[in-house]
Amino acid sequence: MGEALRKWRHGTGRSSGQSWYADETYLKVQGRWCYLYRAIDRDGSLIDMMLSATRDIRAAQRFFRSARSVAGFVPDRGTTDGHNSYPRAIRSTLGRNVRHRTSVYLNNRLEQDHQGTKGRIRCMRGFKEHDAANRFCREHDELRNFLRSRSRDNQYVPASRRPRRFLHHARIVIGIMQIV
Q1: What letter would DSSP give residue 112?
Q2: Among 50, 55, 97, 133, which residue is least crowded by beta carbons within 10 Å?
């Protein structure tokens, strides 16, 4: 389902993704902490996500390679927190032309975006298998991104159009689920 929803993404194309925000958060899988790497663009649309057992340079490089292949281009700017592996991973996978900014405050939009995933996982009390956690996180993020009523940050969507938009997107999701 996640792969099918990826084709319907908001914000695909070069103009929407010139600035990426990347960060990781913690999840419990089999009683151990794992790291959920996520990247969104300046409009809040999902670029990519990856679940990893480690938080090191190899995991960061793997994540940025995956994000680059999903988006189909390299961003102009990348904003991360102050973790040591990000600068080297961005230079080696995205190139030296990407302007890398490290700021806790500039990355707040992604920190707030983690709440949707964390809120859903909290009531589930973790996962028993790494593959199940990876599948859930990917599909949950894709579904959340698809059902958003707006396609860019601070876009005004009148209240009269929100239910119609949501129903249209829900019908597409139900069609995808029936096929899969």
Answers
A1: H
A2: 97
